[in-house]
Design goal:
CATH topology of the largest domain in chain B: Potassium Channel Kv1.1, Chain A
CATH architecture of the largest domain in chain B: 2-Layer Sandwich
Largest sheet of chain B: 3 strands, mixed
Pfam families (chain A): F-box, LRR_At5g56370
Order of helices and strands of chain B: EEHHEHHHHHHH
Shape of chain A: elongated
Distance between the termini of chain B: 90 Å
CATH topology of the largest domain in chain A: Leucine-rich repeat, LRR (right-handed beta-alpha superhelix)
CATH class of the largest domain in chain B: Alpha Beta
Keywords (chain B): Kinase, Transferase, Ubl conjugation pathway
Organism (chain A): Helianthus annuus
Strand order of the largest sheet of chain A: 1-2-3-4-5-6-8-10-12-13
CATH class of the largest domain in chain A: Alpha Beta
CATH superfamily of the largest domain in chain B: Potassium Channel Kv1.1, Chain A
Number of strands of chain A: 13
Largest interface: A-B, 31 and 26 residues
InterPro entries (chain A): F-box-like_dom_sf, F-box_AtFBL13-like, F-box_dom, FBL13/AtMIF1-like, LRR_dom_sf, LRR_FXL15/At3g58940/PEG3-like
Order of helices and strands of chain A: HHHEHEHEEEHEEEEEEEHE
Oligomer: heterodimer
Number of helices of chain B: 9
Protein name (chain A): Putative F-box domain, Leucine-rich repeat domain, L domain-like protein
Number of helices of chain A: 7
Distance between the termini of chain A: 71 Å
Number of domains of chain A: 2
Number of domains of chain B: 2
Radius of gyration of chain A: 23 Å
Structural class of chain A: alpha/beta
Helix content of chain A: 10-25%
Strand content of chain B: 5-15%
Structural class of chain B: mainly alpha
Amino acid sequence: MSSKIENVDMFSSLPEEILSHILSLMPTKYAVRTSILSKRWRYSWMFVTNFDFDGTRTNPFHGLDRFTKFVDRVLNDCKTSKINLFRLQFYETCVQKLSASSWIDKAVRLNVCELDIRSIQLELPLSLFTCKTLTKLRLERWACDGKDWGCPSSVNLPCLKTLDVVVHSDPFVNAFKLIGGCPMLESLSLEVTRRKKFAGCYIFNIPTLKRLKLTFALVITSDINKVVLRVPNLEYLFLGGVLCSLFQMEDVSSLVEVSVSLRHIAYDYLWVELLNGVSGVKSLLTQDVSFFLIGFNVG
Amino acid sequence: MSYSKTIVLTNYDGETFVVDEVVAVEPQTIEHMIEDGCANTSIPLPNVTSKILSKVIEHCKKHVETPNSNEKAAKADLKSFDFDFVKADQGTLFDLILAMNYLNIKELLDLIYQTVADMIKGKTPEEEEEMRRVNAWVFSCFVGVTCLYFKSKKM
């Protein structure tokens, strides 16, 4: 009897808005696939509010046009007036620069709230940097050439609360430009994947910031740079990768929790300075650093 | 001051369920009814069958009873309970969605939506093959195009 019940298709009789909500919870590829189930399902996918395009698994030989055509067509046919989430990831072999830029532009015009872009080649439309509806942004370029995506000098993202950026060498090229244009920023994650040369002094002067994650993944220099934290509302601080910066805590009066997961510490005194700076916090969690501290008196 | 600690729910079949108020206010719809003073005798829930209502009450009870702590064990227990809870046939899930929408329990609704989404995504290979056959623009793969090309050549 139970198998009989399972064979009856009940989902088709769900109200349209529930159905589109459910279809928003899966990669767009699957949502669009349902269009051929029956007449009932033909247009349901067009009302999804989340778009999740993953071109990284597309075969470069015959996926060159297929992925592009698919995304083009989906964005052209969709009837959504407000995009909740737009996620896009692909390799450069699959997609032309201009296509990706026009897709992001379309998402911005459809009042996107959350944008998540990961690719090798990335050219971002100017409209993205003045998007009024954006609350969450993640940008990552998997660069083989060490170059970064470009950021215009004027950025205005009035609603952006969460920013997650990966840059390759110099955060001043775009990360700090972006941060400067976000008056509501509450959560920032900045990852610098390869720091080749001395990269100056990073000053985080963000009064609204509550969470900060800083990661230096790979440092190809013995130069030390300075990181100044002027973040009176910061509650949570995470440091990862390589410790190669001298931290100067100018204002971290609200800091409660510090989490450290370091692979390597360039000089012992950096660690001492860091611990001195966060001595007032309630919770300090350290991972992977303990072995550096053997025979090393902190305090 | 008399203050009733239990709430009576009457469902679609006319059956009554007596539940603690803390459990009953989990669904926002019922909470609002109690706030508005509509819950003096019993709350009618004409859209919900007894099978579904008892399932919903079971879920609310579990979530109310589990201490709201960061303890890993409690969280894992709740997770496994939720996992078992949504292991149901399409018919039950369908009724649950409608009931949840009416009762307005967001947490449970999200869980059920995700379950249904995973079910739709995880169609059997035969069904996917059928989809591929019918809808060329979605699945227009290299092989398909080549086949068409050779077919047209033969003709």
